[in-house]
Amino acid sequence: MKTATAALSIFIALALLPVPAPAEPPPHAKAHGWRKKNDPNYVGYTGKKWEKDYGVVEGKCNSAAVGAVLGGVVGGVVGSQVGKGDDRPVAILVGTVLGAVIGSKIGAEIDNGDRGCMGHALELAGEKKAVRWTNDKTGVSYTLTPTRNFKEGSLPCREFTTVASRGGRKDRAQPVKGVACRKGNGEWEFKP
What we know:
Layout: H1 2-15, H2 34-38, E1 42-43, E2 49-50, H3 63-70, H4 78-81, E3 92-94, H5 97-102, H6 104-107, H7 112-124, E4 131-134, E5 140-152, E6 155-166, E7 176-183, E8 187-191
Parallel strand pairs: 3-8
Antiparallel strand pairs: 1-2, 4-5, 5-6, 6-7, 7-8
Helix pairs in contact: 3-7
C-alpha cells in the first residue's frame, strides 16, 4: 500500500511541474526584432547576402518599393543596368518568355516591380513558401512558390509555380510552372 501511495504521490508531483512551451518572444522582450536591427542582411538561396528582403521572407513582396529601386530599366536589360557586383539591391527575373507563358493579356502587364518580386522570391523564399504581391498599377495579383531546388551544371536552379489573377478572380487563374536558373549576381533567367 505504501508503494502505491508513494508512486501516486510522485506521479502527481511530476504532473504538476511546469513544462516550458516554445513561443515567440513578446514585443517587449530584448531579443524581439534583434535581427532586423542588428543583422540586416538576408541570405539568399545561393548564399548571397541582401540588405533588404522587401517583405519576401514574410511571404509578401512590396512591388512598389522594388519597382522604385529598379526604376525605368526594362525587361532583359535590367541585369546590366541596376548595379554591378555586390551593390545590386534586388534579385530579378529576366527573360521575355515569361509574359507569354503566364498569358497574353496579364503577361503583357508584367513590369519591373513584378520581375523584381519574382527574382527576389526565387532568391529569398524557402522551398514551398509562397510569396504574394499585387501590382497597384495593373491590379494583377501574383503568387510565386518555389517548389524544388536543383543544379543544372554549376548553376543553381529552382522550379516554381506562379498564379496571376486580376480582381481576385482566382477561379480562372491557372498555376503556371516554370524553371529559373541564377546567372550573374542576382539575375534569375527564366527557362521555357
